[in-house]
Design brief:
The chain is α/β, with parallel strands linked by helices. The protein is about 35% helix and about 15% strand. The protein is elongated and about 75 Å long. The N and C termini lie far apart (about 55 Å). Belongs to the DEAD box helicase family. DDX18/HAS1 subfamily.
Length: about 550
């Protein structure tokens, strides 16, 4: 090993290129796809999966595993367990994790593996850049990297303010495969060191992004990201969410990053199980049941699933209006808004998050007490995805509630076939808050809520019509006047099911005259019971 001494304690270490061809064996990549396992109905991955580092054999090189073993680590922390495999598959990640959570190895292991599998040599230049907010953290990260690289032959170095710049420039000219750096000094080299080859960069790690921006590196970060290749993997770690972190995530991450949240105070990463149940609720009582349940559990942490973006939007507006604070994540929101909400809910001790399946995919939020499925899932696989989003409630236990209409009870058979047996939860209907008349008056008088409720109702009907299990979720069996009551309408708004529908069949209008109901014929003159805001509302997509 060559070691170039710099001022005071700081040094840049570079592994000798001569070691490069010393019989490196390429590790065969195994297909890392994990099949859905219906036999694990709890969806509690931590309770069943092996979280030892040896479980990464085949995904991670022998050299890396030796390094981990030498460091004395045997089991992965929560952030490592959730992050390493997706990162090995090339996913971008946005993680809420603090110092001490084990995040350093969570990003170093995939970064080292990337360089190893691509057989990076000094002449290839820099493949990984890890940015730290302070020299202290940069040195700490570099120390961990040094131990992890003990059995590898790739070059690595530390680039930071206060060290010998000319010595750094020389080493960069020779080629450093993995760099740990502070933003200011890195940008200096990118702009002023001709021999610094960073155009082959494969991975950018931004550690403690909130602190990087706090200490005034915002402009440097923007310039660094602008100079780096666009085709790269990015890992962004931040303990808190600020407007500046949002902006940084927006310019650095791909469109759909994996969100990972961990509970930094939790001592164990596994859980005993998940208590699952269902309640049978008639269409007209659905909102009253939801409102009562959320109000009763408002000091806990809950996620509520809806079948459409418009339904999430409406219930978010309605519940906040009637003084039941909730957060919302859905596909119509900009990425920055979803990111902010993710961090807000992640870091909250209690709260209610309303979401769609698509928007919530990839969210991994700690300490959620209840998963509430207000709108039923499309199939057992989706059910397992929903309850598997999190299953770490208080004392390592979580709860899941599925709300079904009497006509939907057949779905339980499919869950049973997928080895997901549910018990029926009893609710005292006499204790359900009867706010129906107030809800109807509010929807009638408040123009914006009325408009939002209309869109949500239409989206619910269309989503119902698009269910794959037609024998369970048959749109013809919906009692529309009763369904509309749960959205605050005395008379159901008109719904044209040709919008977002590939079906050619005609459906008869249900519920009598008056222009309400739904229809599937193409040349329909809509009876305008309510004022239509614009044609745009009829063509909006919905997501589950």
């Amino acid at each position: 090993t060559k070691k170039a001494k710099t001022e005071e304690d700081e040094s840049v270490e570079v592994e000798d290129e001569a070691k490069q061809d010393s019989g490196e064996k390429e590790v065969e990549e195994e297909e890392g796809e994990e099949d859905e396992v219906p036999s694990l109905p709890l969806g509690v991955t931590g309770a069943f999966e092996d979280n030892s580092f040896t479980s990464l054999a085949g995904l991670v090189s022998e050299n890396t595993l030796k390094g981990i073993n030498d460091m004395g680590f045997t089991h992965m922390t929560e952030i490592q367990h959730k992050s390493i495999k997706p990162l090995l598959e090339g996913r971008d990640i946005l993680a809420a994790a603090k110092t001490g959570s084990g995040k350093t190895l969570a990003f170093l292991i995939p970064a080292v593996e990337l360089i190893y599998k691509l057989k990076f040599m000094p002449r290839n230049g820099t493949g990984v850049i890890i940015l730290s907010p302070t020299r202290e953290l940069a040195m700490q990260t570099y120390g961990v990297l040094k131990e992890l690289m003990n059995h590898h032959v790739h070059t690595y170095g530390l680039i930071m303010g206060g060290s010998n710049r000319s010595a750094e420039a020389q080493k960069l000219g020779n080629g450093i495969n993995i760099i740990v750096a502070t933003p200011g000094r890195l940008l200096d080299h990118m702009q002023n060191t001709p021999g610094f080859m960073y155009k082959n960069l494969q991975c950018l790690v931004i550690d403690e992004a909130d602190r990087i921006l706090e200490v005034g590196f915002e402009e440097e970060m923007k310039q660094i990201i602008k100079l780096l290749p666009k085709r790269r993997q990015t890992m962004l770690f931040s303990a808190t969410q600020t407007r500046k972190v949002e902006d940084l995530a927006k310019i650095s991450l791909k469109k759909e990053p994996l969100y990972v949240g961990v509970d930094d105070n939790k001592e164990t990463a596994t859980v005993d199980g998940l208590e699952q149940g269902y309640v049978v609720c008639p269409s007209e009582k659905r909102f009253l049941l939801l409102f009562t349940f959320l109000k009763k559990n408002r000091k806990k942490k809950l996620m509520v699933f809806f079948s459409s973006c418009m339904s999430v939007k409406y219930h978010y507006e309605l519940l906040n209006y009637i003084d039941l604070p909730v957060l919302a994540i859905h596909g119509k929101q900009k990425q920055t808004k979803r990111t902010t909400t993710f961090f807000q809910f992640c870091n909250a001790e209690s709260g209610i998050l309303l979401c769609t399946d698509v928007a919530a995919r990839g969210l991994d939020i700690p300490e959620v007490d209840w998963i509430v499925q207000y709108d039923p899932p499309d199939d057992p696989k989706e059910y397992i995805h929903r309850v598997g989003r999190t299953a770490r409630g208080i004392n390592g236990r979580g709860h899941a509630l599925l709300i079904l209409r009497p006509e939907e009870l057949g779905f339980l058979r499919y869950l049973k076939q997928a080895r997901v047996p549910l018990s029926e939860f009893e609710f005292s209907w006499s204790k359900i808050s009867d706010i129906q008349s107030q809800l109807e008056k509010l929807i009638e008088k408040n123009y914006f809520l009325h408009k939002s409720a209309q869109e949500a109702y239409k989206a619910y009907i269309r989503a119902y019509d698009s269910h794959s299990l037609k024998q369970i979720y048959n749109v013809n069996n919906l009692d529309l006047p009763k369904v509309s009551l749960s959205f605050g309408f005395k008379v159901p708004p008109f719904v044209d099911l040709n919008v977002n529908s590939n079906h050619g069949r005609r459906l008869q209008k249900r519920g009598g005259g008056g222009g309400f109901g739904y229809q599937k014929s193409k040349n329909v003159h809509k009876a305008k019971i309510f004022k239509h805001i614009s044609k745009k509302s009829d063509s909006r997509q919905f997501s589950r």
